[in-house]
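User: Here's a protein and a ligand (zinc ion). What would the complex look like?
Assistant: Let me lay out the input and then the predicted complex.
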Amino acid sequence: MSLSIKDHLIEEADYFKSPNQSDRSENIDLIVIHCISLPEGSFENDNPKKLFLNQLDFDKHDSFKSLKGLKVSAHILIERDGSLTQFVPFNKCAWHAGESTYAGRDSCNEFSIGIELKGSIKEEFTSKQYLVLNNLLYLLKEEYGEMNIVGHSDIAPNRKNDPGPFFNWDMINV
Ligand SMILES: [Zn+2]
């Protein structure tokens, strides 16, 4: 899939504006890779999308109770088939990193783009996801300049373990 960007949105993505966003105070120079599935390991639903839009029914599953009241988002979600949903324009902060530190700098949301892969820390990601992710990373670097790429676990190691051991960093070729 060839991707293009206009007004800080991927034109080929579905766009659902998340209320969980804020203005940036710093330039973008970091990309944070995450994975998400709700419940963990269940991929054939739009629960992550609902979570990012504050529309998830927290009573739907026992594991959702701990998420109650959480206000989170990501810039973009890559589904198992490679399709894209964007929630926050790249020039705004998405609320994906939480309490985090990168190279001595706190609050990584201020200077990063958050990319979620539909997936689990216990399973392989799909080849279509890697293909679209590489296209996306290439485009983002063209648009916003050179950026480092890390996992959520790299910037919040005591709290987070995504994208996990099955995410193959060797597949990233930008
Ligand atoms: Zn994460």
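Summary: The helical segments are 47-52, 127-144, 152-155.
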